[in-house]
Amino acid sequence: MELGQGHLRTIIAVAECGSIGRAAIRLGQSQPAVSGNVKRIEKYFGGALFHRSASGVRTTPLGDWVLVKARTLAADMDQLVSSARSVACGSDRLTVAGQPCATMVALIPQLPRTAEVRVDHSPAWLLQQLAGEAVDVCVLTEPAGSELPVPAGVHRKVIARESCPVGMSAEHPLADKDTVDLADLADDDWVDNPFSDSGLRTACGRAGFEPRVRYWIADPGVYWPLVRSGRAVGLFTGVTRARQGVVFRSPQGDPLASRVVLCWRDRTADQAALIHRLTSVTMTSGTESPY
Predict the structure, then answer these.
(1) Which pLDDT band, with edges at 50, 70 and 90, does 282 fall under?
(2) Are residues 16 and 147 in the same domain?
(3) Do the domain assignments include residue 87?
(4) Is there a single domain that holds both residue 233 and residue 154?
(5) At what angle do helices 5-17 and 123-131 cross, to 10 degrees?
């Protein structure tokens, strides 16, 4: 076996997710495929990269060392590909990355048609891409009251605020209310995002309880049936459309609101200014793209 970029991404995903299953979701692969890939990688390196237990996986000392190198090599490879594509196109192309949120969804149609867009659930991975110069700017979300740490040389600016409704079955006892008190959901099972801090635990803690998260799923399209069946309640972005059998209810006081943060490097300040301008236009007036 020759070590390739896919192997590096597997190491990074498993380490950051802390679980083979969650890493498989992030990588878009089956759990057995990721597990088998990890075993082949460990055989290649001659030692275990991860401790495995019922609660998940964590890196061994060898795994910690390999992870640092893997992140550097993956970022360098992304930069190589991005730069090569720019040369091939004969121009420097704008590359925008972000988490799935209402601001990002509204921004994408406003971008120049030549722009490259990347969307991922992991803010850590997106910031790594930014620091490694694989992308020009990032649009990230953070729970109100906390702040995402950014790498050295990366700047940040809060550009918007988004509410986060709770989705529940139309048969839920609270479904007929316009707003809900988080404390009234203390006995429900929850779905939460495994790749980023949604602010759920902090908000529920302030309401006096620890949320019982039984399902760690990033894609609302995957956990929608769970919510519709009444097996769990979950958080949805403000851009998500309600479907039959599921209703959205706003928590009183908007405790799950998030901030939208624009991040950039010194060399991409002009690109960041463009994104900020387009975002402001998009969110306030719905003006059509100038591109």
Answers:
(1) very low
(2) no
(3) no
(4) no
(5) 130
